[in-house]
Amino acid sequence: MTSPQDPSSGATQLDERPWEEMLRLAQEGTHVQLEEYVSHLSSADQALALSRLDEDEETQVLEAMNAADAAELISHLPEIEAARMLALLDTSTAAAIVQELPSDEQADLLGDLSDEQAEAILEELPQEEAAAARELSSYEDDEAGGMMVREMLRFNDSMSVRDVIQDLSEHGEDYSDIDVRYAYVCDAQDRLVGVLPMQNLLFVKRAERLSDLMIRDPLSVQATASLDDLIELFDAHNYLAVPVVDEQGKLQGIVHREAVQYEETRAAESDYLKSQGIVGGEELRTMPLWLRARRRLSWLSINVFLNIGAAAVIAYFQDTLQAVIALAVFLPIISDMSGCSGNQAVAVSMRELSLGLVRPTEMLRVWWQEVSVGLINGSALGVLVAIVAVMFNGNPYLGIVVGIALFANTIVAVSIGGVVPLLLKRFGFDPAVASGPLLTTVTDMCGFFFVLGLATMMLSKLI
Amino acid sequence: MTSPQDPSSGATQLDERPWEEMLRLAQEGTHVQLEEYVSHLSSADQALALSRLDEDEETQVLEAMNAADAAELISHLPEIEAARMLALLDTSTAAAIVQELPSDEQADLLGDLSDEQAEAILEELPQEEAAAARELSSYEDDEAGGMMVREMLRFNDSMSVRDVIQDLSEHGEDYSDIDVRYAYVCDAQDRLVGVLPMQNLLFVKRAERLSDLMIRDPLSVQATASLDDLIELFDAHNYLAVPVVDEQGKLQGIVHREAVQYEETRAAESDYLKSQGIVGGEELRTMPLWLRARRRLSWLSINVFLNIGAAAVIAYFQDTLQAVIALAVFLPIISDMSGCSGNQAVAVSMRELSLGLVRPTEMLRVWWQEVSVGLINGSALGVLVAIVAVMFNGNPYLGIVVGIALFANTIVAVSIGGVVPLLLKRFGFDPAVASGPLLTTVTDMCGFFFVLGLATMMLSKLI
């Protein structure tokens, strides 16, 4: 990456253990040296370094920096980590840092603190900012209110171009962190009445009124609009931001496209973690051991009971198994392969649901599309495992039993894997979380039943 | 969502089967009626409707629309679907649609077509645009060259503010689709020398030269910069776009923040699909059946051989199993529970790697963090399964065998699950793809070995 503004970054990024230098500078150096060192680290290395310190050391580093730089530093951390560090600091330091964050990040972090901690920090903030943060943190992270910022250009419709240009030159400093491509125009009752692309001001006389220049009846959303609504909106329109209004049409803030994309990425990552059994959709190894163990165990406990249910099928057929012990060798293969086939179908259903290419009601359609694949792959796998079985103990009937069982169970697995996510979505459950264990349990039960049931029927041929 | 510009959308979105109306209008209506109907569908419904038509019908719809609206319509589809539809159209229609797409989407789509198809379309494009598209499609989708667009404001450093304003008012129409917040300033040799925030022009005299107003030595990237480089850059800087230069510093295009975020989301989704055994990271059920079956089967075949390897452990201990048939009931539980524990560890390692909170070399650190959780959860699960085993056949030694085996194998599973993604990443493999099967196979082998090995040692107590 060409970066002529920052010629020294190559050298400092070589640090093997940046947290040690960070701590040393916090303890021995000036805050300017510390801030300069941190600013030369990549944002990933900043997050890495800070998360490697213990709680005392983290506090020392954050307290040694000025609030704006500390805010910048913790904004590179995962939200849950940033909130944890904020809780370590004394209230006035924490409040100073919070004040430097954009309003949506303020709200997210305060929402992750305990009510007392959040309240203590809010009391240190200027009254207006505290009221705003209180209101924003009442929204979920993934609705428009939780993603919006209050930092924007906002003018009254009676202002002239000259008034705006004067305001810009007087408040240039305040506006340095905000997106000044668009201004939002309100009437005397604070109701949003127009949007003004700022570059248009280049073309007009300075005496003109904003009400004559603005785009009227602009698109807007309510603070309760969902992430899906916003994804849809930014997909359909090439906007950088969309204004948020309350029920009276009063302008509350704007949601930037990048905030929506950030939440979309976060939701995808969280879905992946949930689908792998990380309850809550987030775990970092810096989190307390007991919390990590307990959350993982809650998932494992559900699975162990489901597994015991499936194992009951084996127990039921113990006599058959005793008579043909070779079957025991093939039970885990049937179980595992059906799990693999089913997971593939789950993944494709999740993808099509997220793209909107399938509706939750179209179960029959998905089922048939999966069965077509299942017939082909089930045949291939069934023949393959049948050959292995015959080679294993020379009895062709063992091959027939395990081959047919794997064929049949592949079709069961892709059917369940394809349809269950739609069903869960339709009834308001999270398909990422619940598909896996349901799938595994049912396919295990069916698979064991097919192998052992068939074997029981053909027992005379197998012994 | 408040949408005063579009009062009718509520009514038309109720269509159960929008593809039927779409086809009817393509066959019987005017292109204006068709375009209006399509524009009232949400972008997800547009994608859904188009993908539900057969190939002839898709062609009829796309050919009935004007090229700009057809381009808008196919841009809502997953890339692979959009390319497939483009390939169905006659070359001149396809070329007209391609011409309406932004340059990065042109390059992505052409890259997904066969060389002959892409070449045929390129020959129909204006020479300059074809050359540009040829060059862009030589880059991977996830490097800066593949994400950049050529649509931008680009001025010479000798121009005055007056020249720029005159250019804007003359070419306003051409600039309607591009981001005019920043202009990029080049010298006479086309080398990037500055960036100009357009709103600054509001504050200056019209006779001033751009070279005196622009921000000099702007940040830029090479066309080969990776997705990770760009994520890092946009994370560290609050820019909307970054200019791309060649080795001589000549301006090639700009990469928008949203293009980077789109690729980031796509990469996360693709990782999820790969981790579930969807080879290539993409499958839609509209893809040809044999392709879907073949790709899924390629993954299943690897797994079946790995499974047979694990089953060989059971075969080796057949005599023990014959003697204590109750063990067969518990083998799938051990295998499945260890798989669950291991997957949790894989997911957390993937998350920490993607956040940069762990480096691929820090295997020992991760191993220890996982073992701590494994000791707790392994004990809990081991005791639970031991109790079930004792309840099942009344022999306390059966409980001891399966309990110890599950305890030990949970530790094996979280160790492998935590460390293998780091190892794969370190040696340049894709951790999302390879972690799963490696984990399952090794944990199955160990789990079966623990249960059956322990049982063999304690055989006299178990019978």
TrEMBL record, chains A, B:
Domain CBS residues, every copy: 148-213, 214-270
Please name the Pfam families in this protein's record. Answer: CBS (PF00571), MgtE (PF01769), MgtE_N (PF03448)
What superkingdom heads the lineage?
Bacteria
Q: Where in the cell is it found?
A: Cell membrane; Membrane
Membrane-spanning parts: 297-317, 323-350, 371-392, 398-424, 436-459
Which keywords does the record carry? CBS domain, Cell membrane, Magnesium, Membrane, Metal-binding, Transmembrane, Transmembrane helix, Transport
SUPFAM superfamilies found in the cross-reference section: CBS-domain pair (SSF54631), MgtE membrane domain-like (SSF161093), MgtE N-terminal domain-like (SSF158791)
Q: Which CDD domains match?
A: CBS_pair_Mg_transporter
**What is this entry's stated membrane topology?**
Multi-pass membrane protein
Complex formation: Homodimer.
Query: Into which family does the record put it?
Result: Belongs to the SLC41A transporter family.
This molecule's function is given as:
Acts as a magnesium transporter.
Can you say what this protein is called? Magnesium transporter MgtE
- Gene field: mgtE_2
